[in-house]
Specification:
The protein is α+β, with helices and mostly antiparallel strands and 158 residues long. The chain has one domain. The protein is built from 4 helices and 8 strands, in the order ααββαββαββββ. The strands form 2 sheets. It has a 4-stranded mixed β-sheet with strand order 1-7-8-5. The chain starts with a helix and ends with a strand.
Length: 158
Amino acid sequence: MKKKSVILSSIGIVIIAILIIVDPFKKDIWDINAENFKYSLQHISGNVVIDDFSTWTPFEWDTLYSFAPYTTKGEIYKTIGYKWVPISTTVSEEMNQIVFIKDGKVVCYLYGYPEDNKFGFDFGKYEGSHIKLTAQQKLSFKTTISGKNDVRYFNWCR
């Protein structure tokens, strides 16, 4: 009985040590920044024009990629330059797939339907699979709130 208790205790200690070393609840930086971005949008009131989008992103970034609907995972990874997380391909014209990069690494990943995220982006017509923009461009967006779910839309002012 004592031997069984020692074995069970040893197994428990090993499991706890593994959980401490490999935190299954730890979020990746791109998920944390996506949550922080969603939270920062709550501070925008009404329909406004944002003259410098980087002032509304609560993280540093140097490049933004918006991918056209139905862009394959392979094309996204090729454009970004590496595979960073299992991502999804958009399955509708209304979905957004936006990746923010800082120093060559993904720092924020926005994906999904505007109704689910409470925000959506419109970059106009895509020429190819993506649009590439930089923070140095001081991106301007006209924002509007529409729909019964109070979705904030960002319309890029070219």
